[in-house]
Amino acid sequence: MPLVAISMTSLIAMAGLVMDLGHLYLNKTRLQNAADAAALSAAQTLDVTHNILLANAAGNHTFNNAINQELVDANLMPIFTYSEKIKPFIDTAQHPVFVRVVVSGFSQKNFLLPIIGINTLLASATAVAGPSLGLNKVCNAVPLVACGDSALNNFGFELDTVYSLKTGTDINGNWGVTNGAYQNIQLDCGTSDDCIRKQVAGQYAQCLAIGDTINTVPPDHFSANSDGINTRLDCPAGSCGALKGNTDYPADKVTSYPYTMTKYQDDYTTQNFSGTGIQYKELRRIIVMPVVDCSTITNGSGNLSILGLGCFFVTEPAGNDAAGQQTIYAQYLENCLARGKVGINPILTSGPHTIILYRDFTGNLDS
Fold it and tell me: Among residues of the chain, what percentage have pLDDT more than 90?
């Protein structure tokens, strides 16, 4: 009988080892996924607002939505720290760029291992997130190109300057392109107002890379361009046509105007949008436009190479300026969030980037 009891105890211990360690692995994976999501969310909010309190709020909001009931019952509290550099990661409130999340203290109650005196197992997780290098390819650009000069810094655009982007055609139909003009990209869906309106509003999904060749078409559908742009501002003054109220093309969280990017960031800070689901939602007023040399365009048509990818903030609704010329009002930004890929020759200065996870070099906990 003693031998049978010992054998049964050994079998239960082995079963417990499989069951409880398997359960721990599952909880560890859940915990890591939640930490990753929290780090990405906090880093995205930090990238937009430069505000640690909002980043904490966004990270906690995401973490609490990502964990299952067993982890909820553990009353876990992620700890967020911030650093200007990824390595060494030194906690600082001065110019923070990267976010580190640490989640510890989860104690799993075992099912079978208590028979050999192991009542609980511990799990923890860490994650680090921050901006990538500049993107060579973006997959959420608007199907418009900005005219620039490859010989000039930032293609001739001044950082933080608000531009009145025009089509190159004046109110009398005279043609002429200068830096700061814009053109339409030729679309697969055609040239109808409905096609252009939806594509500019956000339906355009083609990935565009530096060095790619694109075709432009005459800007004969400005009202459609205006409607698509103005969905980002909640369709003021009856604009947007058939897209008004269409949930596929939502307004940005901040729709006040005329605004600059600084005021926009202030609104995110004072209104605390981070607690209402900003994470993983694109900031609609920030748009990416490929930059091309428009000097070879004839009446809006051309076959052009993409020189770079420019970041713009929509400051107010598109429409006619005081002279009646069709205009998009946008502020040129040094960088912005976008969806895309870093190429073999990543951009090291300005332009769009994304938020990614990094290896945790701190090494205090498993990551």
Answer: 45
